[in-house]
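Replying to the earlier thread about multi-chain prediction with a worked example.

Input:
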Amino acid sequence: MSTTVSPLAPKHVPELPAIAGVRLATAQAGIRYANRTDVLLALFDEGTTAAGVFTRSKCPSAPVEWCRAQLKSGKSAKNLPRALVVNSGNANAFTGKSGRAATRLTAEIAAKAAHCKPGQVFLASTGVIGVPLPDARIRAALPAARARLSAGGLDAASHAILTTDVGPKVAAAAFRAGGRRGRVVGFAKGAGMIHPDMATMLAFLMTDAEIPPPFLKAALRRAADETFNAISVDGDTSTNDTVLLLASGASGAPRIGGAADAGDFKSALLSVCRELAWRIVRDGEGATRVMEVLVRGAANERDARLAAHAVATSPLVKTALHGGDPNWGRILAAVGRSGARISPARAHLAAGPLCLVEGGLPVSYRERDAARIFARERVPITIDLGVGAARARVLTSDLGHDYVSLNADYRS
Amino acid sequence: MSTTVSPLAPKHVPELPAIAGVRLATAQAGIRYANRTDVLLALFDEGTTAAGVFTRSKCPSAPVEWCRAQLKSGKSAKNLPRALVVNSGNANAFTGKSGRAATRLTAEIAAKAAHCKPGQVFLASTGVIGVPLPDARIRAALPAARARLSAGGLDAASHAILTTDVGPKVAAAAFRAGGRRGRVVGFAKGAGMIHPDMATMLAFLMTDAEIPPPFLKAALRRAADETFNAISVDGDTSTNDTVLLLASGASGAPRIGGAADAGDFKSALLSVCRELAWRIVRDGEGATRVMEVLVRGAANERDARLAAHAVATSPLVKTALHGGDPNWGRILAAVGRSGARISPARAHLAAGPLCLVEGGLPVSYRERDAARIFARERVPITIDLGVGAARARVLTSDLGHDYVSLNADYRS
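Result:
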């Protein structure tokens, strides 16, 4: 009952390689805080394709609505993405008509800078909600940013999208296709939740490969489901969650379109998403350790996810994790109430290599061996439901005093 | 946008009136702790009917499985309930075959004491899970308890079922039917969760009315859905949750069977359940205040419940409640991700009489007015989804440092 070991978050932040066909710049627009970058402008070469996954919230932010609309209509070449504008400090959510107008105006100005149509501009926002977006400040900052665009702007970009994150979250991977080398890079901001109103997860993924939109969409959906949709800091989903994948197809890069040449690209994409997802959970405010919940033996994938999410969002499991308490009873109780089919007589539970429950009953193990595993930064838990062959993996952080302190404080 | 005011938990515990046809006794069996009562024996007169609602966990405890089986087969008179045995200190969950055997043996001994069949005995357990039930101790305690049975044993009973509760939770109400007076009493233990393994909600309701099982079942289901199934201390459901309603039909009491004479009984049952549910939330370990979430304007009841539960289980909402922070953004974000249909342009949110959001947008209000409402022991929140006419109400407690301290500690 061993589990795959995830990489621990390295202490240093790796420098991201440039992606041919992508240029970036940041600006200080003073949206909420002074003396920090809060606007990112990215321009993409002609022929870039895009895919996105967004929050399932029924109250999505104006920029999420905007991106969805562009991706729906973006079937023809003249609708391909040419620019991306991200702002931190204000989520442009619960802002009604004026929020939608702010989005449209910003897209129009960015379109001028990129010599494209507004529908070719993607937008994302993160920050306080229910406050009108000071979009005039964003628009005013764009021309100067336009003049500073550079292919090496990824590291600055990874800072400009942060709100209350501990630090930037970046990842990169290479792949081979058709005898040529391609790259995937990504940067994200986390659902740190230290601020009441800054609960957004944003991730931007870029590759120099040439990839048709349908394939890109499928690859992103699959990777996001296994990573960004399989993490839980506190079970809350924001109005603004956005993951965008852009493929520039810049000259010399491989073309990905069929099953034959796709495997290595998919692996690279998955590894970048997995690294970013890990960092979002590990850097969750107040988090001291991460539980990697692997549910297997489920009747189907839905059941596997239900069970894994029930464990990952249980306050009882998360407080026990904080206390380093190998409390398998709380874990199985969460599985039991999840709605997933379980065969108690065939159920197993292990912490790392140590089996705690076999055939639905606690086995004889040394409490201090279990406690040692729960004291680590990464706590791998494997739960076998004893029913079928489906599996799911979810990462979750612990729930401790820092989380309460940071979230119970009055909004500043 | 006003809400019904729930009664605040009175400082004193009211004495429960006796229910004709019901006799109770408690015992110290030493199941987990010395010097406290931990077994309850109740005997019911012939003709008593029963209904139950239980945990939806796929891993229910052995006594939950037992009760379900008896209620299913309990259509004929010879299967009517005659005895109830409750123990605290051990949940008899995740105990496999030996747990089921312990349940059966206990029912057999109780049946001898009650001169009935084992299938006429109901059982409930609460306490540590995954540890074999010391059922021999329970059985040994029953004969002496049998000798001490009394109609006035309800108050002692309300203590014997507790684990780590702050105190007993009792409620009583009277009703009239057919020109005669009847009573409903109830006592409960809460999902206090201060101990990792003691997360059970038990409630026992008793009335002297004569009520046929189908009607009893429907009335209990309805009352439980509005009360016990509409509270959240931490979103976790235990393996043992049990609510039993027993109707003794003792002589002189009214017979309830049709719509004409049922209204007053239903109200009394609901008020007892509501009072017990309130006390369970208010006495949740670490809780300092209770939010009463009323969702209305929903497309249907399912949507109303989805939205109310999303708010009630959101760690962000619960930590803000702890901090007395009128953070409507977190509340609406939880509603948004709940899956319930919402019309943002018609959505409202109010704290007590104070409107905070109107037509999906924040209105101008004084922050200190909102803060004053959030500083109270009871915080009434009304959310109108602006879609239909369905509504749901859920009570939830705050999430503070005491909750983390109590739940992150190593199991003692």
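Chain A touches chain B through 67 residues (CB under 8 Å).

Feel free to reuse this layout for your own posts.
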